[in-house]
Each structure stands twice: as structure tokens, then as C-alpha cells.
Request: fold
Amino acid sequence: KTGHFEKVLRYTRPLFGKAKVLDMGCADGFFLPSLSNYFPEVVCADIDKGHCESAEWLKNKIGAKHVTVKCTEGAGLNELCSAYKGSFDLIFLLEVMEHVGEPGTMFKDKLEFLEKLSGCLTPGGRIIITVPVMTGPRFLLQRTGLALLGMYREPLTWGEILQAGLFNNTTSLEQRWWPQSHLGFNHHKLIRI
Reply:
């Protein structure tokens, strides 16, 4: 994750000191100190109350008065988007998209999520997305290593591992996807939507 965050900061450097940003799915606030150093107004939001409490604690610990932590638990994205319609120059979705949606409609749900969230952007604003690679050679290497070491992951057949690892085909794995898991998430399909 740290590598993704560093690349994102390099990419957004021209907007340092200028942009109002939203860190959507901020988790425990891991990215909050960096954002608070580089941007004049930051909103960190997450659906998990415990994560928001951790992010709030971190915000207070570093004295980042220009950071607001919003918990969307129960309220959802609609309320956040209503409150911040057209507000943000940048929205960060770092390691979030693989968790968005419901089983059976995950890619449709991801598209709807992005469409709603885009309503929070200023004209010309951008959404920055990073996701884990859960297909291809990295996936094949990871799953093979875990199997050889006897480490637990979701049980997969060698056929499923080879389909996802060699052909980027996660069709059979998508049926077992759920928001707290990465299993079945395919970044190639996300790019195509």
C-alpha cells in the first residue's frame, strides 16, 4: 500500500497547497498525515465507526485542524454526496474499490458508487483509484507460495488459481466475493467498466 500512496502523492503534487480533498474509505487514517501535510482542506470518510474513531484520534494527535473525519455508517454515500456536492478537487479511493458492492452485482455496484461519488467533484476534479492486483502472475505466485507454505487463505482449486493467474479469469471466484474480501475482485474488469 505504501508504494501506491507514494505514487499517488507524486501524481497529485501539482495540486499541493491548493486542492480540497476527500479520502473516501480512509480506514484508520493511514493516509491522513500525508494528506494533512499537503492539502489545505481534507475530509476523511469511512463506513466503519471504529475506523473513524481511529482516524479522529490520529487527526487530534497530529493537530490537523483542517481535517474533518466523517463516518458514513448508517448514513451512506447519498448523505455525504448531498453535503459535499461539487466540493472536492480530488477524491482518493485507495484500496477501496475491491470492497464496494454486494455479491452478485459487485461491478454494477462499483460503477454506481463511482457515479454518485463523481457528484462530489468540482468541475475538472479527479478521482484517484488504487486497487490490489488479484489476477495474473502476482496472484499465481502469491497463491502458490501460500499453498506451499501451508498458510491459510480462502480454499481454491488449482484450476481456479491457474484461471486467475494465467488468464485473468475470475468468473468462478466472483461468486465467492464479499465486501470484506479481495477474492474474486478483478481489476481488469474494473478498468473496463
About this structure: The mean pLDDT is 91. The longest helix spans residues 49-62. Strands lie at 20-24, 41-46, 67-71, 88-94, 121-130. The CA atoms of residues 136 and 165 lie 4 Å apart.
